[in-house]
Amino acid sequence: MVDVLLGLQWGDEGKGKIVDFFAPSYDIIARFQGGPNAGHTLYVNGEKIVLHQIPSGIFHENTINLIGNGVVLDAVTLQNESKKVAAFGIDCKKNLFVSDRTHLILPTHRALDKASELSKGESKIGSTLKGIGPAYMDKTGRNGLRVGDLLDKNFTTQYIKLRLKHQRMLDSFGFQEDISAWEEEFFEALDFMRQLKIVNGEYFINEKISNGKKVMAEGAQGSMLDVDFGTFPFVTSSNTISAGVCTGLGIAPQKIREVIGVTKAYCTRVGGGPFPTELHDETGERLRKVGNEFGATTGRPRRCGWIDLVALNFACMINGVTKVVMTKADVLDAFEELHVCESYMINGKETRQVPYQMTKMSIEPVYKKFKGWNKDITAIKSMDTIPETMRSYIHHITDYLGVPVSHISNGPGRDQLICN
Ligand code: GDP
Ligand code: IMO
Ligand code: MG
């Protein structure tokens, strides 16, 4: 049995914290897509740690963590992260498993990401520059190198061949930076990778499922960054939605039980692209300040705005969401009035549907206003004791989406979660 936990907005919904909270109820936590563009923040013994490549179940000693075939893996990031995790007494060589089909991010992928973004000028995606797009391009273009290839004695030859191809592409961009230092650390990290448990991920996970083990598939990014259904071309290069779990881990759709969608009580986006409910005023600034909305991977300020039910409803539909977890509700504690986007006005027409492209049109959000709860909710533990004004806000969202809000996160702390 597999439950999925994924982001319903443009990423950074607080997935890491929620996976860490649920992890004790699962035997395996598995990442199925994305790479080190992810930044998942956890608090362990009160200390903050951001995971980019390792699944968020790593701090639970009895939990197996799997990096699935759908992920693109940066060996250097993985090695550095495993050192950080080791400071907490966790040995990745014991409970971290990596699929042999997982594609590797090469130093030249990072260079190509940078060169491509530079060439786009004003219309750049705002990529994390971690080499995600170029690595996935080599996967679908049938050129990439995979983790299993590390065990092949011809790996270096294969690497050089691909590197030459990349060099020609870099030349065409006019990219001249010296990446030899990146290559050096890359080869060092590959030696570390070879010491990890490299497995045939699809047999590994299916055997566990057959033996009654419980799996949580941990999404990265968010549904609105999905390469097919997000705000293309301002998206990432993987399928971040629940369908990605099947291709990214090698499991059948009927194995999936719950799809838990995580949303903030408001909305943020980092990088370029459409964001209908973005606030460019002091309210947006206040959300950023109170919510400490700065990117966990790049440190960039996140763009902030009101919750967008049109986009959320779309995300619930394409994912088959069965439960919603709402995070960062405490950030709204002192707001007198809250706005909820109910529909979009596009060219004088009102719609509750997300259009196929949002970049070339003006979208005016239509809001419903709610009274804020004006109360510190950070110590609340049960839904029974939330303020009535907050209950109205949550009820409205539940009604609109037709999906229950099962948990509300009311602080970054590990146990700050309001349960039913
Ligand atoms: P992820 O990428 O979805 O895992 O989310 P990030 O870690 O990038 O960003 C979420 C940020 O919000 C992190 O700094 C978390 O520590 C923090 N956070 C998570 N849940 C809550 C919450 O309920 N309240 C507050 N105030 N912060 C939260
Ligand atoms: P987590 O898992 C927020 C955004 C980037 C950029 C676009 C493409 O922490 O929620 P990429 O590097 O993937 O080519 O960038 O996607 N992006 C994220 N935004 N959270 C993330 O991950 C993101 N991963 C990528 O800012 O706009
Ligand atoms: Mg993040």
Q: What does it look like?
A:
The chain has helices at residues 15-22, 75-86, 92-95, 107-120, 132-140, 155-173, 180-194, 201-210, 243-249, 282-290, 309-319, 388-401, and strands spanning 2-7, 28-31, 40-44, 47-51, 64-67, 72-73, 96-99, 103-104, 197-199, 215-218, 256-264, 267-269, 303-305, 307-308, 323-327, 337-346, 349-351, 363-371, 405-409, 417-419. The protein has 420 residues and is α/β, with parallel strands linked by helices. It has 3 domains: 2-102 and 198-260, Adenylosuccinate Synthetase, Chain A, domain 1 (3-Layer(aba) Sandwich), CATH 3.40.440.10; 106-193, Adenylosuccinate Synthetase, subunit A, domain 2, CATH 1.10.300; 262-419, Adenylosuccinate Synthetase, subunit A, domain 3 (Adenylosuccinate Synthetase, Chain A, domain 3). The strands form 5 sheets. It has a 10-stranded mixed beta sheet with strand order 9-7-5-2-10-1-11-15-19-20, with helices on both faces. The radius of gyration is 21 Å and the shape is globular. The model has no long low-confidence stretch (mean pLDDT 97). The chain binds guanosine-5'-diphosphate, 6-O-phosphoryl inosine monophosphate and magnesium ion. Residues 11-12, 38-40, 296 line the site of magnesium ion.
